[in-house]
Specification:
The protein contains 11 helices and 10 strands. The protein is of the alpha+beta class.
Length: about 350
């Protein structure tokens, strides 16, 4: 369930997209002694949050130069740089994938062009994740969560406790309930999860904080890089797995969680249930965004999504967020249990 309710922010006065040649010239201003021999557009030209180009240096190395097209994109880019600086060489050595490095910057049109090292790989689409790639993704997320929390706190980045995570979820549920637009069955499911103390027994970990399928770069079935570190923090590890529960084909989500648990162990036994809840609450977040903006199209879209979600959760028991129940014993198993109890007494 992916609906990111972020405001568009101020747009910078750029009449048209900057060409890759213009961006290459900015890159040479940003990085001393960068000798550019090639440049090509990167991403959707004239659309999205950034004007971007991939730059090739005479030494054969590749770089990405990006200029934000909105205030929100500039803030995100700045947060990304703070996180990248926190990921020291020693920290990066613990990760089974590459993380880009900052190379330089130069002012342009009231903002700045940022140059970073190019990380090779193809952006992952949810529909293209097979079991091998799912396993690599689970391992990559587990490696992030195994990083020392001091790297976040020492950099002055946010750190949230278990209580913070619980309060945030309950607060979101209460605000959604106040709209009177959440179906009763869904609201009851969410409220029960909020009251389930066992669901919130976990140890906060280092999280990327904004993962989705296209956060990953891959090659030959392995994760080669992870993009977007602007939300790096200490928080609920289920945040980084919530996007995966929405993949409902061929056991792909199972493969991600299985690989993750193999690396991290089973100390957080209900992480998948919490990830499921957080995924569902993205719809509540989208609903609230629509009501706050007074945008009936967004509100109607959220209501439709909640209706489909009710159908999904009532037919798919595998994504339960209720407390685990004890197995139901057969009659002969009950008799054997009673017999053993009598012998003990």
């Amino acid at each position: 369930m992916a609906c990111r309710a972020a405001g568009a922010g101020q747009t910078y006065p750029v009449a048209m997209a900057r060409s890759h040649l213009t961006l290459a010239a900015l890159a040479t201003s940003a990085v001393a002694e960068l000798d550019v021999v090639g440049a090509a557009p990167y991403g959707s030209v004239g659309r999205g949050d950034y004007d971007s180009a991939v730059i090739t240096g005479r030494d054969g190395r590749h770089w990405i130069v990006r200029v934000p097209r909105s205030e929100r994109a500039e803030q995100q880019q700045s947060a990304d740089l703070v996180a990248l600086r926190a990921l020291s060489p020693g920290v990066r050595a613990r990760l089974p994938f590459a993380v880009t490095s900052f190379a330089g910057q130069t002012p342009v049109d009231g903002t700045r062009a940022i140059v970073t090292e190019f990380v090779h790989g193809t952006r992952v689409a949810s529909a293209g994740i097979d079991h091998a790639l799912a396993t690599s993704i689970g391992e990559a997320i587990a490696a992030i969560h195994a990083l020392p929390t001091s790297l976040v706190t020492d950099a002055g980045l946010p750190a949230f406790s278990t209580v913070d995570a619980h309060r945030a979820a309950v607060g979101l549920i209460d605000r959604a309930a106040a709209t009177n637009l959440v179906p009763a069955a869904l609201l009851s499911r969410w409220q029960q999860a909020g009251e389930d103390a066992g669901l919130w027994q976990f140890t906060p970990a280092v999280v990327n904080g904004d993962l989705a399928s296209d956060s990953f770069l891959a090659s030959s079935g392995d994760v080669t890089g992870v993009l977007g570190w602007h939300s790096l923090r200490v928080a609920d590890p289920a945040q980084d797995l919530s996007w995966a529960v929405g993949i409902r084909r061929d056991g792909v989500a199972d493969a991600i969680f299985d690989a993750y648990t193999r690396i991290r162990g089973s100390v957080d036994r209900r992480i998948r249930q919490r990830a499921t809840l957080l995924s569902e609450l993205e719809v509540a977040r989208w609903l609230l965004h629509g009501t706050e903006q007074r945008d009936t199209s967004i509100v109607d879209d959220a209501v439709r999504m909640m209706s489909r979600l009710v159908d999904d959760v009532t037919t798919d028991a595998s994504e339960s967020i209720s407390p685990p129940t004890l197995p139901v014993l057969a009659v002969d198993e009950v008799e054997a249990l009673l017999d053993r109890a009598e012998r003990v007494s």
